[in-house]
Design a protein that fits this description.
The protein is of the alpha/beta class and 111 residues long. Helix content is 33%, strand content 17%. Strands 1-5-4-2-3 form a 5-stranded parallel beta sheet. β4, α4 and β5 form a beta-alpha-beta unit. It comes from Methylotenera mobilis (strain JLW8 / ATCC BAA-1282 / DSM 17540).
Length: 111
Amino acid sequence: MSTYNEIDAHDLSVMLSKKSLLLVDVRNDDEVARGVIENAVHIPLAMLPVQYESLTKAETIVFYCHSGVRSAHAAAFAASKGCKHVYNLAGGVLAWARAGYQFVPLNSQSK
């Protein structure tokens, strides 16, 4: 059975600075409009089954949402499709903000 791991905001911050990973925001458009974690790609949870093929190329994937519930579903889905190093940001953007980390506008990132 494929599974995923939980990661906290601090550990994600360290991972972002040390290794290449795919960071996926699964929140809705209105939520993402308030800002994303830098270098995240936006794939709404409902679109994940349609777009999961693009995820299979990444060695490490971290999913996040508002509180960690939807991203846990996304992580479980990706793991079930054979993705190997899959993480869920525990507590989502709420935990990220509480830890003092910043957000950027989605459209300000280079694609």
